């Protein structure tokens, strides 16, 4: 007779105990290599945000980074003086010091229809989202001036200390003289000022795999540069760099060193083709390439959200150049003031600088400096176009929006740097501060007429009205950074200038 289903002999298999399976070694490997990393993304991300958010509030105040009130007032007055001098729009190159300059002009009350006043009002309204000038009221102008000078939010004039109130009223008086019209009393919420360090940070979040891709790609590029050009990666007091230098080079007899200060983007991924051409053209020159983690989407770097300020970076750079033997040591006395002792000042000397970003030029000697400015964002930055175009503008072309804004400007590190650490006033550069500015063998400016970041036409006018002609290379159809692209006329002109300078 057949046994009933489910029975084996006298035992019911449904009543048997199921012994747990023994874990094999591969299970632990999968747990550690795959499951745990994926699971930990969320808690690690939140921990990273919490830790970094505790660091940010103490870094917002401009004055805490060493920018004194007198320096800010002087720069503000200088920006108002820009464009006051009656200089021709086009002029031949002049010797340094022989040509009049706007910062020597007195700020007087202009007529409303004076072209200088009209131009100023048109530029000034950029800081208010390009609203009509007539819609701007005193409360919003006070808000912008208080942010510009003190980097603090403005509530009302009555709530300020007497000293700050006087400074603010004097600043408003200068603006009204320059604009040729008094600003009406009251407030207009529709003409709010662009307050860079207080407005919400414009960030587009990236997945971890994006940052991993950027990090791996930049690591591969560094390795390729090391194999092909014998470069090495180093760090000097937190300032990271790549260095190419021949063992036979000497400061006395060797060719002029070259330092490349790159801009914002994806690190070496954006510049590796240009650097290959540069190193190939000047293989006998020492070449220094500065690396900036906050501007390279290097989220794994400890200084990703804690960039150096301009004084710290300038001091580190001067120390690095001295260590490399590229600088001379000088002794500076502090104007006879008894409270300060003599100190050593180390300044770069005999270096060719490639600027695709800002450098504290005051830390560079004026005797034998060579400078190449490639789509510089440091000129006319007081007018607000750079700030508006790169951070606030929305009605832009698809190419500019997705390539420049999304992939560069809206990255966490770049947005944090520009909107919480970057001092726009301190990074303005003036013609009078550039050594050998009228010598085309020592100074070169590259501009693209279709630049979507800076107003290249205004920068061109600023340069030409101060006598720059032979030193200027202007591509009417060039976009931002196009002069660095392989195969273009801009790159050929850069390398030609470099070989002949």
Please give a handful of descriptors for the protein shown.
eight-stranded mixed β-sheet, single chain, Rossmann fold, alpha/beta, 38% helix, 501 residues, two-stranded antiparallel sheet
Strand-helix topology:
Elements: E1 7-8, E2 11-12, H1 25-55, H2 69-81, H3 115-124, H4 138-150, H5 162-179, H6 208-229, E3 232-236, E4 239-244, E5 258-261, H7 268-281, E6 287-291, H8 310-324, E7 327-332, E8 343-348, E9 352-355, E10 370-374, H9 385-392, H10 398-409, H11 412-421, E11 443-448, H12 456-465, E12 472-475, H13 489-500
Parallel strand pairs: 5-6, 5-9, 9-10, 10-11, 11-12
Antiparallel strand pairs: 1-2, 3-4, 4-6, 7-8
Helix pairs in contact: 2-5, 4-5, 6-7
Low-confidence parts, pLDDT < 50 over ≥5 residues?
A: 53-67, 330-348
**Strand arrangement in the largest pleated sheet:** 3-4-6-5-9-10-11-12
Taking the alpha carbons of the first and last residues, their distance comes to: 108 Å
Q: Determine the CATH topology of the largest domain.
A: Rossmann fold
**Shape category:** globular
Number of domains: 2
Beta fraction: 5-15%
| Total DSSP E strands | 12
Radius of gyration: 28 Å
Strand count, sense and barrel status of the largest sheet are: 8 strands, mixed
Shape-level CATH architecture of the largest domain: 3-Layer(aba) Sandwich
Q: How many DSSP helices?
A: 13
**The named CATH superfamily of the largest domain:** Alpha/Beta hydrolase fold, catalytic domain
The CATH class of the largest domain is Alpha Beta
Helix coverage percent of residues?
25-40%
By secondary-structure content and strand pairing, the structural class works out as alpha/beta
Mean residue pLDDT: 79
The sequence of SSEs as H and E is: EEHHHHHHEEEHEHEEEEHHHEHEH
């Amino acid at each position: 007779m057949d046994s009933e289903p489910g029975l084996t002999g006298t035992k019911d298999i449904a009543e048997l105990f199921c012994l747990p399976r023994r874990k094999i070694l591969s299970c632990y490997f999968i747990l550690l290599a795959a499951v745990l990393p994926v699971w930990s993304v969320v808690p690690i991300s939140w921990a990273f945000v919490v830790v970094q958010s505790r660091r940010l509030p103490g870094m917002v105040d401009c004055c805490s980074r060493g920018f004194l009130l007198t320096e800010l007032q002087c720069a503000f007055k200088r920006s108002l003086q820009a464009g006051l001098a009656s200089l021709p729009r086009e002029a031949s190159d002049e010797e340094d010091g022989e040509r009049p300059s706007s910062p020597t002009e007195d700020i007087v009350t202009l007529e409303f229809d004076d072209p200088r006043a009209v131009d100023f009002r048109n530029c000034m309204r950029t800081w208010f989202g390009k609203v009509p000038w007539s819609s701007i009221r005193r409360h919003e102008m006070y808000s912008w001036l208080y942010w510009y000078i003190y980097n603090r939010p403005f509530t009302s004039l009555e709530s300020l200390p007497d000293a700050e109130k006087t400074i603010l009223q004097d600043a408003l008086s200068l603006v009204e003289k320059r604009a040729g019209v008094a600003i009406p009393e009251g407030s207009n919420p529709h003409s709010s000022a662009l307050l860079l360090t207080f407005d919400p940070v414009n960030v587009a979040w990236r997945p971890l795999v994006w940052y991993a891709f950027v990090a791996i790609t930049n690591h591969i590029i560094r390795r390729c540069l090391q194999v092909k050009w014998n470069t090495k990666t180093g760090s000097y007091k937190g300032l990271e760099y790549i260095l190419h230098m021949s063992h036979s080079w000497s400061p006395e007899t060797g060719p002029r060193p070259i330092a490349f200060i790159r801009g914002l983007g994806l690190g070496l991924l954006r510049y590796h083709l240009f650097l290959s051409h540069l190193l190939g053209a000047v293989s006998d020159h020492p070449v220094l390439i500065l690396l900036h983690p906050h501007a390279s989407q290097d989220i794994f770097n400890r200084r990703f959200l804690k960039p150096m300020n301009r004084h710290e970076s300038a001091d580190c750079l001067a120390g690095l150049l001295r260590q490399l033997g590229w600088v001379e040591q000088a002794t500076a006395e502090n104007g006879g003031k008894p409270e300060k002792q003599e100190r050593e000042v180390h300044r770069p000397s005999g270096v060719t600088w490639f600027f695709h970003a800002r450098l504290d030029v005051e830390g560079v000697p004026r005797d034998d400096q060579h400078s190449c400015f490639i789509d510089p964002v440091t000129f006319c930055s007081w007018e607000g176009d750079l700030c508006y175009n790169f951070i606030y503008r929305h009605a832009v072309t698809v190419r500019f929006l997705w390539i420049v804004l999304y992939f560069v400007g809206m990255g966490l590190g770049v947005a944090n740097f520009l909107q919480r650490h970057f001092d726009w006033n301190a990074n303005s550069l003036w013609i009078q501060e550039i050594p050998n500015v009228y010598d085309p063998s020592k100074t070169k400016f590259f501009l693209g007429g279709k630049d979507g970041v800076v107003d290249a036409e205004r920068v061109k006018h600023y340069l030409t009205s101060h006598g720059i002609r032979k030193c200027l290379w202007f591509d009417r159809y060039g976009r931002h950074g196009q002069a660095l692209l392989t195969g273009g006329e801009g790159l050929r002109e850069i390398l030609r200038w470099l070989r002949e300078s």
